[in-house]
Amino acid sequence: MATKGNSGDHRSRGSMSIFIVIGLCGFFYILGAWQRSGFGKGDSIALEITKQSDCSILSNLNYETHHGGDAGTVDESEGEAKEFKPCDDRYIDYTPCQDQMRAMTFPRENMNYRERHCPPEEEKLHCLIPAPKGYVTPFPWPKSRDYVPYANAPYKSLTVEKAVQNWIQYEGNVFRFPGGGTQFPQGADAYINQLASVIPFDNGMVRTALDTGCGVASWGAYLFKKNVLAMSFAPRDSHEAQVQFALERGVPAVIGVLGTIKLPYPDRSFDMAHCSRCLINWGSNDGMYMMEVDRVLRPGGYWVLSGPPINWKVNYQAWQRPKEELQEEQRKIEEIAKSLCWEKKHEKGEIAIWRKRINYDNCRDQDSQPTMCESGNGGNVWYKKMEGCVTPYPETTSADENAGGEWKPFPERLNAVPFRISSGSIPGISVEAYQEDNQSWKKHVNAYKRINKILDSGRYRNIMDMNAGLGSFAAALESPKLWVMNVMPTIAEKDTLGVIFERGLIGIYHDWCEAFSTYPRTYDLIHANGVFSLYKDRCDAEDILLEMDRILRPEGAVIFRDKADVLIKVKRIVQGMRWNTKMVDHEDGPLVPEKILFAVKQYWVAGQNVSSH
Fold this sequence. Notes:
Elements: H1 3-14, E1 21-24, E2 27-30, H2 32-36, H3 42-52, H4 63-66, H5 70-77, H6 100-103, H7 143-146, E3 147-149, H8 157-161, E4 169-171, E5 174-176, H9 188-196, E6 208-212, H10 218-223, E7 229-234, H11 242-248, E8 253-255, E9 270-276, H12 288-296, E10 297-306, H13 312-315, H14 323-339, E11 343-348, E12 351-355, H15 412-415, H16 419-422, H17 431-451, E13 462-465, H18 472-477, E14 483-489, H19 497-502, E15 506-510, E16 523-529, H20 531-534, H21 541-551, E17 552-563, H22 564-574, E18 579-585, E19 594-601
Parallel strand pairs: 6-7, 6-9, 7-8, 9-10, 13-14, 13-16, 14-15, 16-17
Antiparallel strand pairs: 1-2, 3-5, 4-5, 10-12, 11-12, 17-19, 18-19
Helix pairs in contact: 5-22
């Protein structure tokens, strides 16, 4: 792959600024993104979609007839939609709850200042975050893993700071990611193969991973080859835009830190956790950070620590640290791992691997028993303080039973009945209800594809489901071309995020009255099922929609699914946000009160005066 040729090719496409507008039975679908991206297939795709359109889906909707006139009058009587102005250019990379200036007003102890600190109501922005000049749609996967357009994240500091470590290089008008890292100078593939000698990546048993302090997420990027899905996190700090680079590459990541509050994941979520020179002081606070990793690891899950202090005897001079300090650091980690009843499986070179026991039976004979947390709601973690105690295992009846259910390989586990459901631990969700949910989302997703033909083509890599339920939307879309961030609203009636993880998918808790822990323009497609009904008495729909606009790429798509009256209000707001919309009936016909609103965000950049009308 000749970089010069690639970047030149990309530049010529990006500068064409062509919109292909196709009438899909009245829905003007913007497909300019294909022209701006590395695809360069806009015309042929436009023709193909026009030929194949299933026009019965896009019949004219007559809300006056279907809904007794109320919906129609709401739509017509409010006059012109409010027009939202672009924010000042200085907000191009604004992350409301991880704002650098606000962070500096909080204590530095235990990384508190790097945690979420959202703006009060009076400081919220009510404008549209602009894209930087020259912004282009990212390359399709897998090219995006190795190349990111410079215009999308114009920060060269990491190329200087991490030059020796092979993280990132600046070439022409693209950043290139060679797949190196501080801890894997031979490349991520070689490093992952070392881990695979101990951890069962190749048979589908290990599917979900948590990467703490992930840098530009090369570990997560290369794990896709093994069909492993890594949730990476790093703080917004002096390493400008590392999480943004991860998402531009098409790798799941959020802004986050191990600080004073619990990680936004349920108990027993991940098959493994990983720290490669992640600069987390694991031995501090009486082992509280390792206890938090233990909480989110499934019984039988793996923890990998590579880099300092492992192999300190050989490396203390290279690391420029006193050997006594490193020796004490490793002693503490070993001690805490033992108290957590983890089994050390491997130490070679600078890599150490532990495994959490499959149940508590193996730990009862330990000399010292750690303080156990009160067994409560494993998902009640949002803004809750991290605790210095060990999360109890689910009960088991024999020494070889896996607490929390036997592991199933992926993809079998995607549609298998999760243990949390078969064991009855989520009230009101039976095995039948789970299977029904799975079937209905297959049907919904097929209906979506009849309207947006490119839904699973690779055009949309980073997908978000804002109200993920049992994860069946993501399961219906599952493909190596895409991944889904399954969001569990903290006010959801039932907390089913643990089920989503058991299915081999990833997700996170979030309250949509606040900004999400990501950079602007990091998702290609957002799915909002019932979100606005759920939050109607909680916070302003306008604020939620502005946040969706912040995290959606130019020419990204949104699918809203909600009651007709709710969607009419949503449609009115987004008309002032430079979005194109089309409302369609439920796939079962016009008498179903639930409707679907398709939207596409127009392409515009900082300094460009584009009206939304």
